[in-house]
Amino acid sequence: TKHFPVRRRAAELLSRRRRAVRAVDDVDLVLRRGRVTAMVGESGSGKSTVARLLSQLVHQTAGRITLHDEVVDARRGRRFRAHCRRVQLVFQDPFASLNPIHTVRYHLTRALRIHHRDGDLTQGLHDLLTRVSLTPPEQFLAKYPHELSGGQRQRVAIARALAAGPEVLLADEPVSMLDVSIRLGVLNLLRDLRDRLHLAILYITHDIASARYFADEVLVMYAGQVVEGGDGEAVTQRAAHPYTRLLIASAPDPDRIAGEQTEDAAQAGGEPPSLIDPPAGCRFHPRCPHAMARCSTEAPPSFAVGDNGSGHWAACWLYAGAGS
Ligand code: SF4
Ligand code: MG
Prior knowledge:
The chain is an alpha/beta fold. Helix content is 32%, strand content 19%.
């Protein structure tokens, strides 16, 4: 396989209520071009922090992020802008991310200029809108955000991200605020961009059903750590970790694509722990129906599960000695 563009390992410390909180701990993540990696977890599991780290909106206090083998540390202006050109974010709320007093033309023109993608501006705008299926483009350029539907606004936000000509797209809950009926269209657009622009996409979601629908690889986060990962179909059809099984069981209808599951529904079966003082051993042990004595004292390493080719693994003592 091709060399992946982004890799990060280990921890980040955030200061909250004057106490150090390790929001993400020992997360090892590889994004590859032409692939969608889904990161699934409840709110507060640290998944948005991963996106903020990769985009360098916040900075790691330990660990390493690399892009094509180069260490990323974009704290300063020029390097931050160069990083932004390659790694773009799409947020959950397209209304909040677009300025209500500016037209679509203004948003996209500005993005093209910031990233020094001069060329023919009219053609550039035309291409961006066509790429996100807002056609005919002329019809959308003069519109203000409030004149667009939620799905159209998210398409404008995606077009703006594409204006930078990125290699990596970080999409943090990009459809969770949209009507169920239009979610699939936006996910299909992201998949189309993965293929046509050969983008590496990190899809962050609390909805494992949508991850099942379109991710090539799935990582499940719990309490700031990745607890299961591997080929998307293996993880969602043959979930190994008890937490992943809980997520699937609490989804309203596991076969439903991009369903109406709310973050509350995903939280059925207890609350995720505080990251200020996470449980010892396996962080999931207070909620786990299979917890054994060692689970409350020893943190489980990753064990291979299932077929060898799927790269499927779970950090759970149930699989100690199961794989090889
Ligand atoms: Fe449950 Fe133990 Fe596995 Fe943690 S390590 S998920 S507590 S069985
Ligand atoms: Mg979040």
